[in-house]
Amino acid sequence: MSRVWNFSAGPAAMPQAVLERAQREMLDWRGSGSSVMEQSHRGKRFIAMAAQAETDLRALMGIPASHAVLFLQGGATQHFAQIPMNLAGPDDRADYVVTGHWGEKAVREAAPYVRVQIAASSGADKFRSLPPREGWTLDPSAAYVHYTPNETIGGVEFPDVPEVGDVPLVADMSSNILSAPIDVARFGVIYAGAQKNIGPSGLVVMIIRRDLLDRPRRPIASVLRYAEQAAHDSMLNTPNTWGWYMAGLTFQWLREQGGLTAMAERNRAKSELLYRAIDQSGGFYTNPVQPLARSRMNVPFWLRDSALDALFLEESEAAGLFALKGHKAVGGMRASLYNAVPLEAVEALVSFMWDFAHRHG
Ligand SMILES: Cc1ncc(COP(=O)(O)O)c(C=O)c1O
């Protein structure tokens, strides 16, 4: 069977070269006579691989020495709660900027552990835009400001990093990490579930300013404490060895592709092509997100006649275009264009969309 063009929102497409390399190394990793999954995380080979993955990520993102890199578990969802556990005391306040489903969920999960304040929200606009920065009510004594740079379901992305003064900025970058260069020094915490732009699920990559590790304001289990994980190189207990290895292969692949500047250019070209097809379809397809807030990673779109949705999905799948069904909360379609999705896939999608609109418009 040949591979399909995979537009899944996550777990998502991975670079074919990475999958092929993992396949080659599956039975005999680095001359060890066993797979990476069958070896101790305390072994020399694994420790060297883990360190190389961090080195490659640091080089890709330009992560300064002021920030630690952690390879954790629990998914981004667990860290919605674990972040306030680590960064705030029960009487502290934290500001949340909410621009969609995941920001709302981050608020709900944080609420038992910190006094959540909604500093800004685009909920009144059904999360189709970004709340203008001048309207945010930021508390200078908040423990941190949390936001979601890319909302995976609504397809809303911040075009740049918001200025929040001296309060540490915490970003759930699950669906746009590694998609373009960013200035890591501007963040207190960046965290991301791996299953979109990094590798398989079950791994969370966190980049955390080291001074934030010294905020032991409440007793929590050592495995949940970022400072403990940092002190033990993320191996306080058995890590997700397979996920870490696959992430490392992806980081190497990204470096070979020209790094994040090259990825940014490709991601811009892919998303522009798709948005142009939507906007020039004469209303057959629509995307209601404010143009400046449109995501380069997740492009939701709706057919004018939703009675055609099932046929669109059936025919697109038959054409080798996979996982275009929109999230159940919003319906319609969604194409996720992460790093591993090539321009060729988007060209195939756009050409299918033109043809479908021509036949049914
Ligand atoms: C922006 C964002 N945050 C959080 C999550 C939840 O991640 P996880 O399933 O790893 O908990 C997702 C989607 O999976 C997401 O897209």
Give the tags.
361 residues; alpha/beta; Aspartate Aminotransferase, domain 2; Aspartate Aminotransferase, domain 1; 2 domains; 7-stranded mixed β-sheet; 3-stranded antiparallel β-sheet; 9 helices; 34% helix; 16% strand; globular; binds pyridoxal-5'-phosphate
Write a structural description.
This protein has 361 residues and is an alpha/beta fold. It folds into 2 domains: 240 residues, Type I PLP-dependent aspartate aminotransferase-like (Major domain) (Aspartate Aminotransferase, domain 2, 3-Layer(aba) Sandwich); 102 residues, Aspartate Aminotransferase, domain 1 (Alpha-Beta Complex). It contains 9 helices and 14 strands. The strands form 4 sheets. A 7-stranded mixed β-sheet has the order 2-10-9-8-5-3-4. Strand 3, helix 4 and strand 4 form a beta-alpha-beta unit. Helix 1 crosses helix 6 and helix 2 packs across helix 6. The longest helix has 21 residues. The protein is globular and about 60 Å long. The mean pLDDT is 97. Pyridoxal-5'-phosphate (PLP) binds next to helix 3.
Helix and strand topology:
Elements: E1 5-6, H1 16-25, H2 44-61, E2 67-72, H3 75-87, E3 93-98, H4 101-110, E4 115-121, E5 145-147, E6 150-151, E7 156-157, E8 169-172, E9 189-193, E10 204-209, H5 226-231, H6 241-256, H7 259-279, E11 285-286, E12 298-303, H8 309-318, E13 321-322, E14 333-336, H9 343-360
Helix pairs in contact: 1-6, 2-6, 3-4, 7-9
The chain binds pyridoxal-5'-phosphate.
Pyridoxal-5'-phosphate binds at residues 10, 75-77, 102, 148, 152, 172, 174-175, 193.
